Q: What sequence folds into this?
């Protein structure tokens, strides 16, 4: 039995990810080597350095890895389900819907309210429902669907600005801070939540991956295979929206990762059904950890919010894909 070469790439990306995580942990005002990191992580020595790494650096680095993985598989799931290569949580307005929910929660329920997570999901999901209904009423092509998402993003952005106008100084700074996309807010609680739902989402995708990829063949072909197309699409979009809303609720908007990574995965490794989502997940993790490294290094000792960096890099990529009609 021939083993796909993509399994080799899975192992390769896994070890690249580990290397970059260790590299990310070594970057900061206090210079540390790989040996220092390994000593702290595995031998519980050097208490001063241990506090810096475990309490400050490690949560941020793990947040980059988990968030990159979540945005990547969510983007791939959305693109396949909506049969649209330009679809992503950012371009379709899902991230902005989640941000609007966060703004509502901060303004009406307080900065530390648990409603942040509920309203982030509801705001994100409202975007999906609007796009889903538009697509059912009048079948939109790829460009029209993205333009509809841009329009919804603009509307939600305007409402968010109105809420900021009504906010106190403290509430305003909290809402604006969320728009930056900042991983320094990571806590071990947020990491546990992201990890649990990432694992559950990944298990679902792996169990349903053949049905999910059948959507790319068109609705008629998928229906002929006995697949409940609308139900599958809706579940996929709910899952992707929920995962994205969690990242926005915890860290703010981190744009374009969900758009770019699925395209990079296809370009570098092809579209083999058995390995596509795993490679996509690992590549998303790698790219956001790499972005976190640059966010620390560019303006050191200041840390550039990672959402700003991904938007700077992602916007030209999006324009390139749009101009190429891909």
A:
């Amino acid at each position: 039995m021939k083993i796909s070469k993509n399994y080799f790439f899975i192992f390769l990306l896994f070890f690249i990810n580990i290397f970059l995580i260790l590299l990310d942990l070594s970057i900061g005002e206090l210079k540390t080597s790989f040996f220092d990191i390994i000593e702290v992580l595995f031998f519980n020595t050097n208490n001063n350095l241990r506090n810096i790494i475990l309490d400050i650096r490690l949560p941020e680095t793990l947040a980059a890895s988990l968030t990159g993985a979540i945005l990547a598989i969510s983007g791939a799931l959305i693109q396949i389900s909506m049969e649209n290569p330009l679809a992503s949580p950012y371009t379709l307005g899902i991230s902005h819907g989640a941000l609007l929910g966060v703004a509502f929660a901060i303004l009406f329920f307080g900065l530390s309210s648990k409603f942040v997570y509920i309203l982030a999901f509801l705001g994100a999901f409202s975007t999906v429902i609007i796009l889903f209904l538009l697509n059912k009423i009048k079948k939109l092509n790829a460009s029209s669907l993205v333009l509809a998402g841009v329009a919804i993003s603009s509307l939600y952005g305007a409402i968010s600005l109105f809420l900021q106008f009504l906010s106190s100084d403290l509430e305003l700074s909290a809402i604006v801070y969320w728009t930056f996309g900042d991983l320094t807010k990571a806590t071990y609680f947020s990491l546990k939540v992201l990890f649990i739902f990432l694992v559950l989402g990944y298990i679902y995708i792996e169990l349903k991956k053949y049905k999910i990829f059948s959507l790319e063949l068109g609705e008629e072909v998928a229906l002929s295979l006995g697949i409940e197309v609308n139900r599958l699409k809706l579940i996929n979009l709910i899952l992707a929206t929920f995962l994205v809303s969690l990242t926005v609720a915890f860290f703010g908007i981190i744009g374009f990762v969900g758009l770019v990574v699925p395209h990079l995965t296809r370009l570098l490794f092809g579209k083999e059904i058995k390995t596509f989502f795993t490679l996509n997940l690992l590549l998303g993790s790698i790219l956001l950890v790499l972005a976190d490294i640059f966010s620390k290094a560019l303006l050191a000792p200041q840390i550039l919010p990672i959402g700003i960096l991904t938007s700077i890099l992602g916007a030209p990529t999006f324009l390139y894909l749009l101009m190429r009609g891909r």
Summary: The chain is about 75% helix and 0% strand.
